[in-house]
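Exam revision sheet. Question 4 asks you to relate a sequence to its structure. Input first:
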Amino acid sequence: MTRVLTALVLLPIVIGVIWFLPSQGTLVLAAIAGVLACFEFRDLAGALQIRIPVGICAAAVVFVCCAMWSSAAVPFVLLAALIVTGAVAVAGGRPSPGVLADAAATMFAPIYIGLPLGALVAIRTEWSGGGRLPLLLLLAVIVVSDSAQYYTGRAFGKRPLSPAISPKKTIEGAVGGVVFGTAAFAAGGVYLFPAPLWMLLLLGAAMSLLGIVGDLFESLLKRSAGVKDSSQLIPGHGGVLDRIDSWLFAAPVYYMFLSAVTRTAG
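Answer key, structure tokens:
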């Protein structure tokens, strides 16, 4: 019940910010989610004795580049983060088995958190009509897919999808999530994008699958760190990472699709 009540509060807030407020509202909302997600990621890394202070800074800069300036700057930000990470490691002066893990996690933070959230804001700001409908369509697809996975899994689920990572997820639930998520995207996409139906169906399936993979990946991070949730911030839902994990994998692909459609239409 707590989970449902929390969703009934949070979902209208997110929709309201996207639909009724100017693009700066989406920017602020994504920035708050990004900060909280970075701290949760830091805590997961810390549970594994991994340090990522440079990674949090890089995630913030990558987010700003994607959301407000230009995604073309992202490779340079990542290169700068790599150089700083290497310099910090060298300044430590001690060879350690943890050096590679620290560096890898540091470079992963901006790619995993900063880039996708920046892409979400860019969708809101760069497309005609304010990007409201394209962004809400992505939200709808993820919500529909997640819900379909849950209810299809409960009704028909027998075979575990990934028992070592998420024992309650089933293959049948995943199939249901992909089918309903694909249908939701195609139903909305035909009114929004000048793209053939087969392309909409393919992208809808890809986003649904990416959402599932993103969810499982974040579960893998938590199990590796020995925790149930990324935090206890959201009652009944865990942390911010637990709520946006599906978006993190789907958003960049969606952004690239919108960019391609815009270039084709132009």
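Marking note for examiners. The chain has a mean pLDDT of 86.
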